[in-house]
């Protein structure tokens, strides 16, 4: 069983952020109340090459919090954790505090 996945080309490995289902006081939150499809970048590939052979790097880096499309990506399970693999151009943007 593999313990580490290094994406190829312009792919990005993302661990989805699961919003809490209840507050600290124990109040259950509805499913739609805090649904923001986001995730944390775990690993990135080296990027694509253009026609001249120059490397085009991936737009995000490890540790970035990104906004993900509602559908798409490839689900990958490594050990007990679940990740998703997206192409660089499928990621909608980065989230900042």
TrEMBL record:
The keyword Chaperone applies. InterPro entries: Chaperonin_GroES, Chaperonin_GroES_sf, GroES-like_sf. It comes from the Eukaryota. Pfam families: Cpn10. SMART domains: Cpn10 (SM00883). Keywords: Chaperone. Belongs to the GroES chaperonin family. This is 10 kDa chaperonin.
